[in-house]
Amino acid sequence: MDLDWDDLRIFLAVARGESLSAAGRVLKRDPATVGRRIARLEEVMGAPLFARSPQGYGLTEAGTRLMVHAEEAEQAVMRGAEALDRQTGTLSGQVRIGAPDGCANFLLPQVCARIAAQHPDLELHVVALPRVVNLSKREADIAIAVSPPETGRLTVQKITDYHLHLVASRGYIRRSPAIKSLDDIAGHPVIGYIPDMIFDKELDYLAEIGADHATLGSNSVSVQLNMLRQGAGLGIVHDFALPFAPGLRKVLPEAISLTRTFYLLRHAGDARIERLARVSGMVLDGVRAEVARLEART
């Protein structure tokens, strides 16, 4: 059976994106061309690889079997590229890092800049999504999460604990009724996540401070931070984000202090890919150091 890597690469993109258009964006090809290549591959295989429906492309039994071999071929190609990197000691190629909004905005830019300075041929893409990054669909090669996953073929490493506090702008604190206890919070507008868009229980901060809803809400940490900077109310903020917003001040820091944890996730099948292992190690060390550096400034 005559299969080449390009056939398998297109098959993987459709399987992970579950549509021709999603695969086309990843491959930078027209969806119609992707569709023709899949049809030709199915002809070669002598069986349908996808079940088409209005919801998208789902793998058939034959497609599921091919997926195993296609991923093995993908890893072999990546290991081959690494063999060239080892000759020079540098890293090259593309690595996608998925992360929640706070980490993506306030930690990864500095971490990635330092890695890129050491390895100029390496492409680092930060994927900031308001949900859990799906490594199985290759939305990213490495992911940072605030909860260890309960399912999936993933390797998990703890990166570090981090801290959050209730904050408000100096202007808001000056013009508003004094906040001397937890009971006083009820008289103030609260900024936080949109309740039905909280994708991880660890992000449900308001429940821990006794607030039943957010007066102003967003699924983005950056938007919440900017609402607080405008003096719109009180909100929970990462300590590592506070150096980027010097006008904010902690409120009731002794009474309200939250601790969360970052975890580094990788697909178990990538364990033998040295490039990803090296980048993962640099991301882990970099995020850990950056959290410590920024929190020390608060």
From TrEMBL:
Keywords: DNA-binding, Transcription, Transcription regulation
GO molecular function terms listed in the Swiss-Prot or TrEMBL record: DNA-binding transcription factor activity; sequence-specific DNA binding
Biological-process GO terms, alphabetical: DNA-templated transcription
PROSITE patterns per UniProt: HTH_LYSR
Stored InterPro entries: LysR-type_TF_proteobact-type, LysR_HTH_N, LysR_subst-bd, WH-like_DNA-bd_sf, WH_DNA-bd_sf
Matches recorded under Pfam families: HTH_1, LysR_substrate
Source superkingdom: Bacteria
Limits of the HTH lysR-type domain: 3-60
Family: Belongs to the LysR transcriptional regulatory family.
PANTHER family tied to this protein: HTH-TYPE TRANSCRIPTIONAL REGULATOR, TRANSCRIPTIONAL REGULATORY PROTEIN
Protein name (database record): LysR family transcriptional regulator
Organism this protein belongs to: Maritimibacter fusiformis
